[in-house]
Amino acid sequence: MNDSEVRAGQAKAEPAIAIRTDVIIEESDEGFARLRIPLPETRFRRFLSFIFRLPGYKILILDETGTQVLSFINGRRGFSELAGLLAEARSMGDAEAKGSMAAFLDRLASERVIEFCKPGGCA
User: What is the pLDDT of residues 37-53, one digit of tens each?
Assistant: First the structure.
């Protein structure tokens, strides 16, 4: 086995850590969260924002479960620990919690609410 294969095997073994991005979170009394997600700054978007008076952010509403899962994300927990917390909080099986957590984290990442980093921080 050469060095690159060893490093590739180590990279696969390292769990990714989810961290929150610069999102403004407003929680309601009902347990819902309203996220203000900044939009990427481009010349075209600035032009459209000027013409149509568009905000520089978009809104994403999370239900009680989504708000609770978002509160679990602290930049130190890996996927397995997050799924375990969800399973415990919602009385779910491990497989169901892992599936739900994977789908939810993918959605948050696609909306730029979180990003994934290796343990030790993002580069």
Answer: 998 889 998 898 889 99
